[in-house]
Amino acid sequence: MPRMIARRVLYGFLILNVMTVALFVLVRMVPGDPVRAQLADAAVSEEQLAELTAELGLDAPIAVQLGRWYADAARGDLGESYALGRPVTEVIAERLPVTLELTVMAVLLGVVVGLAAGAVSAARRGSWIDNIVRVGAALGLSMPNFWIGLLLISFVSVVLGWLPPLSYRGPTEDLGTNLAQLVLPAIALAVGLSASIARMSRSAMLDVLGSDFVRTLRAKGSSEFTVFRHALRNSLIPVLTLVGVQLGALLGGTVILEQIFALPGLGRTVFEAVGNRDYPLLQVSVLLFGFLFITINLLVDISYGVVNPRMRATSR
Amino acid sequence: MTERSATETDSAARAGGAVTEPPPSGAGEIPVETRGQATLRFVRTQKLGTAAGLFVVLLILLAAFAAVVAPFDPTEQNRNALLAAPGVGHWLGTDDLGRDLLSRIIHGARISLYVGTVTVVVSLSLGVLVGLVAGYIGGAVDGALQALIDAILSIPPIVLALFVASLLGPSISNVIVALTIVTAPRFARVARGEMQRVKSEDYIEAAVVLGASRARVMLRHGLPNMVPALTVVASLGFGNVIIAEAALSFLGIGPPPPQPSWGLMLSQGMMYFELAPWIVIFPGVAISLAVLSFNLFGDALRDFLDPKLVR
């Protein structure tokens, strides 16, 4: 197990470096001058433009720029955002928690609702509840999350006459406001996840309910509750896998939902940075998405061992 | 839809595979299903999937004949019918510029299906090529390709597509480029897995011993064997591409206005929800129905071919 983890960490590190280089080269190969993008319509002479370009180090060959980026990064300096004029680390430190909070809320919501729906559906197989869950899951997987977000905010504002507070507050500043702002986007984000979890846990539960050990449990007179508990625990592994698989869609979903709900998160940062050709901020924010994806998937893999003791023994 | 009846569908997959790869002659009389018989059995066993498939066909026809079917010009503005409610004349109502929503949705299907088709076809070709090579040759080539694929797949698809499309500028072809970059690695991964699975089979070894070239082994023996798996991922991938296209359009980096892209219609209608909820409801329904039908069709196909084929 420790060897497997070490190998996975090393490989993740390698992947991150492939990403770093690819992103770095890609943004600089595509037409579009970051200096002009920052200055917008301000009248500047060609000389001033060249001077600014040199100041930002953008006149050097790409390989040299990349080398400098790595050298700086090694010292903990990720550069300064062109558009905001602040260190990238500072901007990220502000915005990452928003996206993380949103994602965690969505995962919790999705897992709880999905597992409950899947379990009930499997236990009452063929009933009207089962049918509702299955139709609901198929629908939930087909609706774009930003549309759900739009419908939610529209419904809430028109029918209930309530609008989430506009200017963002962190959870430590004002927890009530913070939750009020995040609940709708979190629901919108959770729909797809809970739909796929409901599906997966339903079929996993059905598999377990038909297995020998469940028959033995019933034969020795265990209550239905005990049977249910065993079945649920055994269907947790595919659910875990699914969270890992769906993570990309989940993190990606934050980009648009943060846009709709005016949340200053990482997704919105990518959107703004790419528009401004804000190379330093863009590089780090996209990389961070990759880092999150790789890290969480690694954690998912490690947690298999916790959920399923068999894997501890057999894993390479 | 995801009911498991492993034994029945398993043998079906083998029979289905045999359609493209005829059994060696003289191997006894193995009953082989023709393509027509297989289709009939699909229609009989996968009713929901068939209905979904028919809906896809309907959508394609609507998109193809949009100019004839749509009651109005999708960009024609009508000042006498701004934000008109759904009713006779404008079946789904009009938007803030008095444009007929039904006509815009029908024309929007053209964009979605066009982007979806081109993206899926190009991604499939690229992905299969990379997957075949990585899976068959293995070694360092495989390692390098795997690292690249993993790097791409570790960035959330929307983030990467947004990154690429936004750098390139808003246009349909740039959206296709961006979505292909996101989609092709997924197909490559499936193709690689299938190639690896097939690689150790006896008939591949036989072909190698008989002196078949690498290209011949990959294309003649590897490719036909991954058709079932690829059909399923392609169908499911189509739905994802449609959603992603809508998302990019929604963010304003899809095809520029006045083109009636579904995602753009949603973002433009956002501020009129209170006055005219239909502007936000119908394009979303269109996206969901299109994606739903591709998903249901893909699910049915997977169950039909082999439930264990693709997760």
Automatic annotation (TrEMBL), chain A:
An annotated GO cellular component: plasma membrane
Keyword field contains Cell membrane: yes
GO terms under biological process: transmembrane transport
CDD domains hit by this protein: TM_PBP2 (cd06261)
First-listed, main subcellular location of the protein, grouped into a coarse class: membrane
PROSITE patterns (UniProt xref): ABC_TM1 (PS50928)
Domain called ABC transmembrane type-1: residue spans: 96-300
Keywords, sorted A to Z: Cell membrane, Membrane, Transmembrane, Transmembrane helix, Transport
Entry-linked SUPFAM superfamilies: MetI-like
TM spans (from-to): 9-30, 102-123, 135-159, 179-198, 239-261, 281-307
Family to which this protein belongs: Belongs to the binding-protein-dependent transport system permease family.
PANTHER family named among the record's database cross-references: DIPEPTIDE TRANSPORT SYSTEM PERMEASE PROTEIN DPPB-RELATED (PTHR43163)
The protein, known as: ABC transporter permease
Organism for this UniProt entry: Halostreptopolyspora alba
TrEMBL record, chain B:
Region listing for Disordered, in residue ranges: 1-31
Domain of life: Bacteria
GO BP of this protein: transmembrane transport
N-terminal signal peptide: none
Membrane topology according to the record: Multi-pass membrane protein
Annotated localization: Cell membrane
One GO CC term, this protein: plasma membrane
InterPro entries tied to this protein: BP-dependent_transpt_permease, MetI-like, MetI-like_sf, OppC_N
Domain ABC transmembrane type-1 per the UniProt entry, residue ranges: 109-298
Keywords: Cell membrane, Membrane, Transmembrane, Transmembrane helix, Transport
Record field: transmembrane: 51-72, 111-138, 158-182, 226-255, 275-298
PANTHER family documented for this protein: D,D-DIPEPTIDE TRANSPORT SYSTEM PERMEASE PROTEIN DDPC-RELATED, OLIGOPEPTIDE TRANSPORT SYSTEM PERMEASE PROTEIN APPC
Similarity annotation: Belongs to the binding-protein-dependent transport system permease family.
Full protein name: ABC transporter permease
Organism in which the protein naturally occurs: Halostreptopolyspora alba
